[in-house]
Amino acid sequence: MNAPAANLAVPAWDGQRQHSSHALHQGERVWVETNCYVDLWIELLHGMGFDPRAALAFTVTQDFEGDQFTFFKFPLEDIERLYGTQVTELAIYDSLEDRVLAQTQRGHTVLVEVDGFYLPNTRATSYQREHPKTTVGIDFIDPPGKRLGYFHNTGYHTLAGDDYDGVFRKLPHLTARAELLFPYVEFAKRVRAPLEGSALAEASAELFRGHLARRPQRNPVTEWRAAFPAQLDTLLARGESYFHVYSFNLMRQLGANFEFLSKYLSWLDAHGVAIPETIAASAQKVSSEAMVMQFRLVRAMARNRRDTCDDCFDVLEAGYENTLEPLAAWMA
Fold first, then answer.
1. CA dihedral for 290, 296, 299, 300, sign (positive or negative)
2. Is the dihedral of CA 223, 229, 231, 235 positive or negative?
3. Hey, what domains does the chain have and what are their CATH numbers?
4. Which of 151, 177, 145 has the alpha carbon at shortest distance from 164?
5. Non-local CB neighbours of 240 within 8 Å, separated by 6+ positions
6. N or C end of the chain: smaller count of CB under 10 Å?
7. Contact, 115 vs 166, CB < 8 A?
8. Which residues pair with 150 in a beta bridge?
9. Do the Cβ atoms of 163 and 157 come closer than 8 Å?
């Protein structure tokens, strides 16, 4: 059993964590999964006993980056301010396995990029089939028993045996590959008590105002609309496999981001920061219309038919305008 760390560290456990997904990952959702980093942090914060909705203020900063929408992520400085949890890069100077063991023995959670080929919770997608890079949060490791406990996507999971060796690159065909670089690794540690109650809501609202000042100065959906005809040509030429990665980085990132923005606005309103319901509804409209557009493009590609989705873009542009500008004016 991993030993507990001093002060504010999470108590150690034996790999049998009882974890139910946060409300953000349950119930009626347009986008069940968003991206590996955001979904991981939702469950990690929830596992620490915190409400991750308080940290969703950053969703107003999403932009169109020319070929994708911003891969939205919790700002680490926001996590430290709200929850007293600091995230620092972890140097991997010899063995990833040893470094993970050292940190979990101190009660910390290690965030590491791993090969999804070895994650059994992804049986429906990549497990034993593909090699995607994805981030997990490891809080339990048992090297003699080759067991691992980790947060990933919308829940908490365990793995063992050859999957353990695969994650740590201990399989024979991996240990012989000297050209493989060490993965990027961070670790999360409690450094001070988290904010609670009205102090949490007030701090979150203050962060929100700061993020609103950093929002795009023009409608990013309009910019996407201008770039879309050329992207559509590429979609039709490259087919289904390319559509999956395109839709993940465009429709899903936009839609999931705005669904979380809608949830955040409702959380603020419930915690004493009044937000008109119409604004949250406009954010949710962006989310749902992004899904409509994704389905339309699936049909268009199946028929090899060019669909510029003009009416979808009309709804998305209006939804963005009816969310960000009224929100900025209201919070001012």
1. negative
2. positive
3. 23-190 (3.90.70), 197-331 (no CATH)
4. 145
5. 301
6. C
7. yes
8. 138, 157
9. no
| Per-residue pLDDT, 174 | 74
Q: pLDDT digits over 82-106, tens only?
A: 999 999 999 998 889 999 999 999 9
Instruction: Tell me how far CA of residue 102 lies from CA of 2, 5, 246, in angstroms.
Output: 9, 11, 39
Residues 106, 188: Cα–Cα separation, whole Å: 11
Q: Do residues 142 and 45 make contact, with C-beta atoms less than 8 angstroms apart?
A: no
**Sequential DSSP letters for 8-36:** TPPPP--S-------GGGSSS-S-S---H
C-alpha 276/C-alpha 285 separation (Å) is: 15
Residue type, 201: A
Please count the residues of the chain: 332
DSSP H/E element including 200: helix 197-212
Q: Which residues of the chain have pLDDT under 50?
A: 1-13
Residue 77 burial (CB count, 10 A): 11
Half-sphere exposure of 98 (CA within 13 A, CB side): 5
Question: d(Cα 214, Cα 38) in Å, to the nearest integer?
Answer: 20
Specify the pairing of strand 133-142 against strand 147-152: antiparallel
302: enclosing H helix or E strand:
helix 277-302
Q: How far apart are CA 119 and CA 116, in angstroms?
A: 5
